[in-house]
Amino acid sequence: MYALVDANNFYVSCERVFRPSLLEQPVVVLSSNDGCCVARSNEAKTLGITMGEPWHHVQRRLPDAGVIAVSSNYTLYGDMSSRVMSIAAGLGPEQEIYSIDESFIDLDGVRGDLADRSHRLRERVFQWTGIPCGIGIGETKTLAKLANHIAKTSERKPGSYPTHLARVCNLAALSVSEREELFAATDLGEIWGIGRRIGAQLNEAGLRTVLDVVRMDPTVARGRWSVVLERTVRELQGQRCIAFEDSPASKKEIACTRSFGTPITELEGLSRAVSAFVARACEKLRRQASRAAQVLVFAHTSPFRKEDRQYSRSITVPLRRPTADTGLVTASAIQGLRSIFREGYNYAKAGVMLLELTDETQEQQELDLDGEPEDRSQLMATVDRLNDRYGKGVVSMASTGAKKKAEPAAWIPRADLRTPEYTTRWSDLPIARA
Fold this sequence. Notes:
Helices cover 36% and strands 20% of the residues. It contains 14 helices and twelve strands. The protein has helices at 10-18, 42-46, 55-61, 74-88, 114-129, 141-156, 176-184, 196-204, 210-214, 218-224, 227-236, 267-287, 326-340, 377-390; strands at residues 2-7, 27-30, 37-40, 68-71, 94-99, 102-106, 133-138, 168-170, 254-264, 290-301, 312-323, 347-359. A hairpin with a 6-residue loop joins strand 2 and strand 3. The longest helix is centred in the middle third of the chain and has 21 residues, at 267-287.
C-alpha cells in the first residue's frame, strides 16, 4: 500500500505562512524573470489563470481582479519542503521524495485505519509548518496519485466527489462499485503518466474516463500504444509495476540554465554567468556522487525581442577525464563559450549541461602520460560544506566575478517581487510582536 503526500499549491502556501494577508486572495508565484505563473492559489485558479500563463497577459486580462504576484523564492521553498517531508516520513516506514512538494510513503505493514492515521499526520504538518496538504492512498503509485487528485479536488470543488474523501482519500478502503463510480467521474487526463498526446489518442479511440482505461486490456494498450501505457493500465488495475525507492536514482544529465535579468553583450559577462552555472551543476554532480565526461554550453538571444538580431549556438566540450572538479569543468566550459560567442548580440539566456555521467567510484582505465593530476576532491567537498553552512556562493570561482560588488550581476534573473528568506537568513527572520 502506498500513500502520496502532496502539499496544496505549495509555493503559494509557503508565501502565505509568513504573509497571512494573502489568505483567501488570488495569488500567483512567477517564474524566472517574473515571466509566467508557475503556482496559483485556488482563488487564482477560479479566475481562470492557467499554469504557465504570462504575467503580463494576466495583468491585461484581469486588471481589476486584485491578483497578487510574488517572485519565486526557491531558498524559502526548499527549506519549507525539508520541514514538510521530515514530518511526512512519520506516516510509514519508508519514504521516497518525488518532488519539492510530493512524497510517496510505503504503508506496507502499517496497522490500523490508514485514513485516520493520514488525517492526523495532515493536521500535524499544518500545525507545525502551516502548509496544507492532501493525501491519497492506493495499492500502487498510480492509484495513490489518482487518490490524491480526488482528495484535493473534493476539497477545492465541493460536489465534485463525495465529501468524506476531501483531504484524504483511501481507494483501497472503498468497494468495487464506489471505486468505479469515482473512476467514471474522473477524466483520463488526470491519470499519472498519460500526457496530452496519448490522452488525445485515447479520446479518438472512444475512451474518456479513468474507468475506461481501467477496463482496457493491458496487452492491447501495449500493442496499440506503448509499454508505458500498459504499465499504467496494470497499475490502475492494482498490479505494482513502478518500484518504490528510498532515494531517487541518479540523474543521467545535470543542467543549469537561466534567463538574464538584463541582456548581456560582452564575453566577460557571459563568462561570469556560465562560471556560476557550472558551479551549481557541479555541486549537484558531487551530491549524487557522479562525474561528468562532457560539458555542453549554449547561449542565445531572446526570440521574443523581434527588434534584436537573432543568434543561438551551443557546443559540447569533452573533458580529459570524467570529473566533478568545478575548476576543471569551468575551464572547459569557458573555452567552449569563447568559440561560440559572437559580438553584436543581446544575449538573453545561457546555460550548461553536464553529460555522460558516471559513478565516481568507477575505475578509470586510462594511460596517463603526464602523471596523476592533483586530487582536489577534498577541496571540492570543503567548498560544498562552507557554502552549505554559510550560504550559497560564499566560496566561488574567481571567474564568476562574485567579489566585484561594484558591478551588479546582470545575469541574475529579475525578481522584483521576491519576499524575504524568512527561515534561512538572520536578517530576514520574522519578528512577532505580542
